[in-house]
Amino acid sequence: MHTITIHTTKAYEILMEEGLLATAAEHISKVLPPAEDGHAAKSAPRKCCVVCDKTVHQLYGQKSQPLLTGLLEAGYSVHVYVFDPGEKSKTLRTAEDLCGFLFENHFGRNDFIIALGGGVCGDLAGFASSIYMRGIPYVQIPTTLLAMADSSIGGKTGVNAEAGKNMLGTFWQPALVIADPETFETLSETELLNGLAEIIKAGFIGDTSIFDAISEGLPAATAKAIQVKKDIVEEDEFEGGKRKLLNFGHTIGHAIETCSKYTVPHGFAVMTGMYLTALAADERGWSSEPMAGFIKSAIDAFAYPVYTDCTAAELAAAAKDDKKHEADNITIIYPDRPGTCAMKELPISDLEVFIASGLTKAQGR
Ligand SMILES: NC(=O)c1ccc[n+]([C@@H]2O[C@H](COP(=O)([O-])OP(=O)(O)OC[C@H]3O[C@@H](n4cnc5c(N)ncnc54)[C@H](O)[C@@H]3O)[C@@H](O)[C@H]2O)c1
Predict the structure, then answer these.
(1) Which residues sit with their C-beta closer than 6 Å to ligand 1?
(2) Most buried of 41, 53, 299, 307 (most Cβ within 10 A)?
(3) Cα separation of 174 and 233, whole Å?
(4) Closest-lying ligand 1 atom to the alpha carbon of residue 166
(5) Catalytic residue of the set 30, 134, 261, 365
(6) Based on the domain organization, do 250 and 179 belong to the same domain?
(7) Residue 289 burial (C-beta neighbours within 10 Å; 0-12, 13-18, 19+)
């Protein structure tokens, strides 16, 4: 088994192995024992709430399936909360509904949540666990490539708001991450590409050997992407500085997602965002060497569609609402050289021109 420990304010392990869902309960019970000393009701088994969307519920969340069977056998009282798949469920309303479900089932501060699913589930369930009774533990069991390589690690939780994506959120580290790459087998080609985009992003930010690892297989590439994220979040857990590098492509990417009403998947939007940023940064001579060609070669290698129907004005308006802007400036993460990104403050008033230059070059005008 591959084990990576994340040393943040609360240290936790990421366990990765094919078939790990079947023995997940065994590992969870070491971190969150079914009848822990100090548990509110020592005589009653500790409760856990498996949170998953309808698709993942069918695949891995049934009481007859290995994860839940294992949890029941380990002695937990198991509850299951199911929501509709997709970004549209990542809202305060769903988080409140989930908290209501926990109250109805008398969850106490020592009980916990299991986020079983993709990034939407992890962000939503992690957020609910951070606010329920001022915070209860949660375990991440990512089942998409995107969630395994990126969103299940680092403790960023949140939901979307009218004002934009992830506008309501917390930093709340999981107690454990259980990663079973066998779950990739049921992912569609689109979902695999969606997740691969975050792995490629990690390659651009911190480790170009990721590009070779991709040809060795997704688990190897995922482990390398996790290592890049680990190094960054350990240095800057609360995104005061270096962690912003993980947002490469996300300022424009989030704007594309918002403008498309979330019809463009996150990874595809980020890929487009990274490319447009590189084109605009090259035009301004920011990077130590021109980088747009390097980024385009990764896009072409996996045949990502680089497109957006949105105008620069629409994207700039959406990005201005994004939480990553401070005062009159917005932090732009741009590729500096292969495997290294850098940051620059751009006046908000210049953002539309910046995006327009990327769009114009991408469209070959
Ligand atoms: N917290 C972070 O650090 C962080 C980082 C990156 C992205 N994110 C967030 O992650 C979200 C995107 O995550 P996502 O792409 O995983 O989306 P998702 O959770 O919606 O999953 C995508 C789809 O895959 C399905 N699915 C999940 N596991 C499956 C499996 N094993 N087999 C078949 N289908 C499966 C889901 O039902 C869903 O329809 C966005 O909301 C984004 O903001 C968060």
Answers:
(1) 53, 55-56, 59, 85-87, 90, 117-121, 123, 143-144, 146-147, 150-151, 154, 156, 166, 183, 186-187, 191, 194, 266
(2) 53
(3) 13
(4) 43
(5) 134
(6) no
(7) exposed
Helix (H) or strand (E) holding 117: strand 112-117
Last-in-domain residue among 170, 186, 202? 186
Does 7 qualify as catalytic in the annotation? no
Secondary structure (3-state) at 345: strand
pTM for this predicted structure: 0.93
pLDDT reading at 216 higher than 60: yes
Which residue do the tokens 């929501």 mark? 83
Q: Residues of the chain with pLDDT > 90: what percent? A: 86
Q: Same domain, yes or no, for 21 and 168?
A: yes
- Using the mean position of ligand 1's atoms as its centre, give its distance from the Cα of residue 119 in Å: 4
For residues 43 and 115, state if they share a domain: yes
pLDDT digits (tens, 9 = 90+) for 101-126: 999 999 999 999 999 999 999 999 99
3-class secondary structure, 214: helix
296 has pLDDT over 80: yes
Indicate if 229 belongs to the active site: yes
Range 198-224 average pLDDT: 95
Mutate to test the pocket of ligand 1, among 55, 67, 218, 228 (most ligand atoms within 8 A of CB): 55
How many structural domains are present in the chain?
A: 2
Q: Is the pLDDT of residue 40 over 60?
A: no
